[in-house]
Design a protein that fits this description.
This protein is of the alpha/beta class. It is 42% helix and 24% strand.
């Protein structure tokens, strides 16, 4: 007998410093993942060598995207949204990785949002997908 399984869906609001991961199960729930390179650390690093700063930022950014990728692997459908290009950068990395070929990933531009607005955005997006 053929059984239909519900797709596992997640919405991720993100910028270059943090991500709010909201699994959609009718009512999204969120988990925030902060990028460890804080604004204060970035200010301090401006006084150091630019090459060292850029190298550190690149490694931390790669770790940030890798952590998000590990979460995304568990889902069938993903909506990446937020006010910066971080979502597009992550999308491009995921598209180049065969581990994500089974995942339907969409990106949408959005403004800064409150957590409730993010939840509403994810809920609306996936409910529209059902029809």
């Amino acid at each position: 007998m053929y059984t239909i399984t519900e797709p596992k869906r997640v919405g991720i609001w993100m910028d270059h410093f943090s991500a709010n991961v909201m699994a959609f199960t009718g009512e999204p729930m969120g988990t925030t993942i902060d990028w460890p390179f804080t604004h204060e650390q970035k200010e301090q690093s401006l006084h150091r060598s630019e090459k060292l700063t850029n190298n550190k930022e690149q490694h931390e950014e790669a770790d940030y995207y890798k952590n998000l990728g590990e979460i995304i692997k568990e889902y069938n459908e993903v909506i990446l949204f937020g006010p910066t290009d971080a979502k597009t950068e992550l999308f491009n990395l995921l598209q180049a990785d065969y581990h994500f070929k089974h995942v339907k990933i969409e990106i949408k531009q959005s403004n800064k949002m409150t957590q409730n607005q993010q939840y509403a955005f994810v809920k609306d997006h996936f409910l529209r997908q059902q029809f």
